[in-house]
Amino acid sequence: ERAIKRGAGELDGASYEEIRYEGYGIGGAAVMVDCLTDNKTRTVAEVRHAFAKNGGNLGAEGAVAFQFRHCGQFIFAPGTSEDKAMEAALDAGAEDVVTNDDGSIEVISAPQDFHAVKAGLEKAGLKAELADITFKPLNDTELAGEDAAKMQKLLDAIDMLDDVQEVYTTAVMDA
Fold it and tell me: Vertex 23, ends 67 and 136: CA angle to 5°?
């Protein structure tokens, strides 16, 4: 009963902390896990167990963070005018515009410029399918077949933990 009250915020003493855990998955793919917890000891044990049980290993702070870029990311559906997206994005302060192999367009901004770029794109009549401040992998780790299935199982196990907010990985798995 006391735990329920504390969880509902009715009792004092529950203070939440943001924590980032870093590790490696299948094939050396980097994994970053952002958590929000009121009990660091429990959370690190759960995250460590999820990594160990599914073929990964938890690393030290800073072990994989250098493999990601903190940025604003906007993704537009294939068929979006590349010229219009590029002009609007660059005018709004975006850092880069990339056309992907599938025809989708990706706009990258600095995290602090995210809202200005979003407003500029919307003003130009462009609505992103995905717009978020994220950690984008600098290099991909390609996984296929059994390795891809194992990596997906690891990511699912981590994502299922109550304290986990976001999971970022360099793994790219075939469908």
Answer: 30
In the chain, the amino acid numbered 112 is Q
For the chain, first and last CA: distance in Å? 45
Question: In this structure, are residues 22 and 29 in contact, taking their beta carbons and an 8 Å threshold?
Answer: no
- Judged by DSSP in three states, 161 sits in coil
- 128-160 per-position pLDDT tens digit: 999 999 999 999 999 999 999 999 999 999 999
Q: Are 30 and 22 in contact (CB under 8 A)?
A: yes
Rounded Cα gap, residues 18 and 160, in angstroms? 17
Looking at residue 49, its amino acid is H
Of 109, 105, 115, 126, which is closest to residue 73 (Cα–Cα)?
Answer: 109
* Coil, helix or strand at residue 164: strand
Distance separating alpha carbons of residues 23 and 64, to the nearest angstrom? 7
Contact 86, 124 (CB under 8 A): no
pLDDT in tens, 18-31: 999 999 999 999 99
Element (DSSP H or E) covering residue 87:
helix 82-92
Residues 6+ apart with CB under 8 A from 130: 73, 74, 75
